[in-house]
């Protein structure tokens, strides 16, 4: 092997090592951890729904705070899902927020007419059942401002997750229909998925009781 050939091989080896190092450094970049969703996937609302734009609708809706995260890791299927609380825009660890007691998740969207009929019944059911069971609504459209204004018009004040990407529904295997209701046991397991509209608190009470038996 000539001296020229040896130097050529050395240069090629060095270049290959530099390329490998560059690829590794990009892959390990702190701007995005492997396995985490990109900003586009994790986005729950429109770019137009800035905190300033939502301040008025939030004031009108006057929603209660979302459930506080518990030490319990919560439902396995929902771990790692972070959404926004419609009341104040705070991030919510869904699994931990729903841990520790039975939960009725009501999945809806602002443009859904049956949802608008059902939401007041959900609020009525929550008033009747008290703190034994939590009712949490999940808005499944990126237009968060419209959701807040819809709740304000309906006079419905329930804790609400803003989930424009339907991550919660996908994790729980809920059919792509609205409204839909998911009953979770206190241990976080799914007791029943109810892809139907309810018209009264009595109907909801009966369905939830049957699911938790």
TrEMBL record:
Compartment list: Cell envelope
GO molecular function: oxidoreductase activity
Gene3D superfamilies, per database record: Glutaredoxin
InterPro entries given in the database record: Redoxin (IPR013740), Thioredoxin-like_sf (IPR036249), Thioredoxin_CS (IPR017937), Thioredoxin_domain (IPR013766), Thioredoxin_ResA/DsbE_sf (IPR050553)
The keyword Membrane belongs to this UniProt entry's keyword annotation: no
Span of domain Thioredoxin: 57-213
CDD domains named among the record's database cross-references: TlpA_like_family
Annotated spans, Disordered: 28-70
Highest taxon of source: Bacteria
SUPFAM superfamilies noted in UniProt: Thioredoxin-like
Identification of the protein by name: Thioredoxin domain-containing protein
Species whose genome carries this gene: Mycolicibacterium sphagni
